[in-house]
Amino acid sequence: MLQRVSRSRLAVPSIRLRRLPVHLTVLVIAAIWLIPVVGLTVSSFRPALSVATTGWWKSFALPGDYTLENYSNALDNNGLGLSLFNSLAATVPATVLTVTVAAAAAYGLACMKFRFRNSVLLLTVGLLIVPIQITLVPLLKIFNSLGLTGSFLGLWLAHLGYSLPFGIYLLHKFFSQLPRDLFEAAAMDGASATQVFFQIVLPVSRPALASLAIFEFVWNWNDLLTALIFLGGFREVAPMTVTVSNMVASRGNGWEVLTAAAVLSMVVPMAMFIAMQKHFVRGMLAGSTTG
Amino acid sequence: MAEVVLSHVGKVYTDGTRAVADLNLEIVDGEFLVLVGPSGCGKTTALRMVAGLEDISEGSVAIGGRVVNKMPSRDRDVAMVFQSYALYPHLSVRDNIGFGLKLRKLPKDEINSRVADAAEVLGLAEHLDRKPRNLSGGQRQRVAMGRAIVREPQAFLMDEPLSNLDAKLRVQMRAEIGRIQRDLGVTTIYVTHDQTEAMTLGDRVAVMRKGVLQQIAPPQVLYDRPVNLFVAGFIGSPAMNLVHATLERGDGGDFTVAVGDQRLQVSEKVLSERPDLERYVGKAVIVGVRPEDMEDATVAGDAEGRTLTAPTNLVEPMGSDVMAHLTLAARAAVTEDIKELAEDDGGRVLDESATTTTIIARFSPRTELQVDDEAKVYVDTDRLHYFDPDDGTAIWGDDNPATTTTPNTSQGTTEGEST
Fold this sequence. Notes:
The complex is a heterodimer of chains A (291) and B (419).
Chain A: H1 2-44, H2 48-53, H3 69-77, H4 80-111, H5 117-126, H6 133-146, H7 152-176, H8 180-188, H9 193-204, H10 206-222, H11 225-231, H12 240-250, H13 255-277
Helix pairs in contact in A: 1-13, 3-13, 4-7, 4-10, 4-12, 5-7, 7-10, 7-11, 8-9, 10-13, 12-13
Chain B: E1 4-12, E2 18-27, E3 32-36, H1 43-51, E4 58-63, E5 66-67, E6 78-81, H2 93-103, H3 108-122, H4 137-149, E7 155-159, H5 167-184, E8 187-192, H6 195-201, E9 204-209, E10 212-217, H7 219-224, H8 229-234, E11 241-249, E12 255-259, E13 262-266, H9 268-273, E14 284-289, E15 294-296, H10 297-300, E16 307-317, E17 322-328, H11 336-344, E18 357-363, E19 374-379, E20 385-387
Parallel strand pairs in B: 3-8, 3-9, 6-7, 7-8
Antiparallel strand pairs in B: 1-2, 1-4, 4-5, 9-10, 11-12, 11-14, 12-13, 14-20, 15-19, 16-17, 16-19, 17-18
């Protein structure tokens, strides 16, 4: 006993020492990621002349040398305000749709018994490796004949279709690891399969649903290809990605406005991530079952 | 509350494995029936078939007179307590207990008052707003119980509800389950592998082995009149000692059991109780003696023809008794039944060729026996058990039932079935 205590006392500094490289590495990686973000953000608040002549880090030595001009320029003159709205209109419903449909499908595949269940699952997972590009032409033809091209509904459906295999795969993995007893207990308590889904499975799966929502949101938000193809490049419907890429093409010089646009398109997914963070509760199932 | 009747119930899994065979149980209204047996004996499968969590391959299950084979769990109106508790982790204790009532769309006031009542009974009143993760193991177990009792179902089904509690808590909860069940009078089927739980809780106990019902009887009958070696070895702790012996009849007509080189006198009374023993005279039998049917002869007083001597290899003082492990010069009984029990007992090694058997005797604490002493053991020969060495069935031949198909017929009609 005595030996054990003294050994563990000795072990404290050595564990810290051993973790030092890990901590350093993490810090370095964080810095590598953060510095450009900070630089971009700082630059977006600097006047065009300063941006063109000095580096962003110099701005800290010049107090008062900040402006919101880039933002008003981007939002008003370049129609980024409308694009911001368009991006939200494209992304939010697509994300909600994907998470909802994937959850329902994954629940069926993970928790219900029916014929060809495994085949359906296998087929779904197999779809993960199909490249988007080979589906574009046939899908566009179908969308054209249905009058879906150029509409948000069409884009939502396209996003939904492309995201479902991953969503189902992710949630299926999570659902199938939920303790079976939980479903059986609910069934004994009188719950139907639908009630089990809404009252048990969804609440205890919050962490998985939140991660899927973040994935989908970021993908849909950053998507350029699908948006260009199914919405077209029209200004009225163009999301952020399309508008920003047009700005890159049209104004090679005035890139101080671009920094503001980039910050705007970055802020929304970040806000989304922070909002979802509280759902990543560790040990969601703690206390449910023994062992 | 209702009776639960299983008739010719069998379970065969899709891969052909048979879990339960021709199970017949009639559990009357308000009865506490315990299904007991080693792991893999089909007791849990049988329970899950009643619950509707497992398809019924053969036969039928009726609850309250309705055959429920095709009825989904949620319509059977039975409540189950799971071994793992299976509490809803995102709901408070209050909502966990009230979940079933909420699904049945009971008025809020009634749900609240019934949850409060159940919480009162279980001592959970102060914890109603906590989440399961903030409860101790014993409290979680109570919540699982609460979820069952609040529903006032036709029957309770309990699947080893105490196996995850520590020893002290288990004894306490065992008493509580017994009390609650008696108070509520709800028909209960309780599955356990713990024979102490079975004996203390059950109005009747059904012993199963490899999917086959061995014996169903009130605990004391099970203990006093086991129908075969399996039941004899399973019920009782420490287990019944089982050794090979020969029945002999002396010149004067007296009846003896030869255990190794030693002989025990058996009174005529035993013969009249077990008329079939007559047929085994001169033949090999397996003799069983429970630890408490032996006593240190220096304490009990010497009795001619009723003592055995054996060297002592271990003495365990328990305070109230002393457990003496003795090496008896007689061949140990090793049959399929006993092998299976040994396996269930943590893989105890059995040596078929050994000429000695370690037997355990429960002596009075007044014994002065020491390790390596030659113990003189008084054996209550009226209470010996006799089994056929070939098929392991108990040797009786009288009309007393060892198995009761219904609990209230103390002098039933069925002869103890053996399998």
